[in-house]
């Protein structure tokens, strides 16, 4: 249980750090919408198979995968994910379809090459070459996924 708390803290740290660096360009189109937050169709992407430009998945995405928190952040062509206690960074690449090519600091390979299966602007589905599959929701800066524990476990040592 302590590992879940640590993983949640790491995910919270990633989301907070990315919120402070500012995801999004602040430029707006004629309708006054930020292109980074526009739906994939409005931004010129494909809402179905995941094709399109990196900005179509820009922002912070969070969720639970196998009951564990996952936080992905994309800014421009840069991407970072924290999942299962591993922190990985890399790029969004176009390889005939949108892919995440990441490297984990600890050498883990569970989430190093991922294919964007779908993106409707609110839900992003990624299939990883190692067999994992993440379904993440677009989140506000600093927000954590629903379903995380809110308190300490009952057997947590107290001073």
Secondary structure layout plus pairing:
Layout: H1 2-21, E1 59-65, E2 68-75, E3 78-83, E4 86-94, E5 98-104, E6 113-119, E7 123-128, E8 133-139
Antiparallel strand pairs: 1-2, 1-8, 2-3, 3-4, 4-5, 5-6, 6-7, 7-8
Structure description:
It is built from 1 helix and 8 strands. The longest helix is centred in the first third of the chain and has 20 residues, at 2-21. Helix content is 13%, strand content 36%. It has 159 residues and is mostly beta strands. Strands 1-2-3-4-5-6-7-8 form an 8-stranded antiparallel beta barrel. The radius of gyration is 16 Å and the shape is globular.
Unreliable stretches (pLDDT < 50, length at least 5) are 1-12, 14-52
Taking Cα atoms only, what radius of gyration do you get, to the nearest Å? 16 Å
So how many helices? Answer: 1
Q: Count the beta strands.
A: 8
Average pLDDT over all residues: 72
Q: Report on the biggest sheet.
A: 8 strands, antiparallel, barrel
Structural class: mainly beta
**Which strands sit side by side, in order, in the main sheet?**
1-2-3-4-5-6-7-8
Element-level helix/strand string:
HEEEEEEEE
Estimate what percentage of residues fall within beta strands: 35-45%
Question: What keywords describe this structure?
Answer:
eight-stranded antiparallel beta barrel; 8 strands; 159 residues
């Amino acid at each position: 249980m302590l590992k879940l708390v640590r993983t949640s803290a790491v995910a919270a740290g990633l989301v907070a750090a990315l919120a402070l660096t500012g995801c999004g360009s602040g430029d707006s189109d004629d309708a006054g919408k930020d292109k980074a937050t526009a739906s994939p169709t409005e931004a010129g992407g494909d809402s179905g198979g995941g094709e399109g430009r990196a900005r179509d998945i820009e922002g912070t995405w969070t969720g639970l995968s196998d009951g564990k928190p996952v936080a992905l952040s994309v800014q421009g062509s840069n991407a970072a994910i924290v999942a299962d206690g591993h922190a990985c960074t890399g790029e969004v690449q176009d390889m005939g379809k949108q892919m995440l090519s990441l490297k984990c600091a600890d050498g883990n390979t569970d989430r190093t090459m991922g294919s964007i299966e779908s993106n409707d602007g609110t839900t992003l589905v990624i299939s990883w070459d190692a067999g994992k599959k993440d379904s993440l929701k677009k989140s506000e800066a600093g927000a954590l996924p629903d379903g995380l524990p809110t308190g300490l476990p009952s057997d947590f040592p107290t001073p």
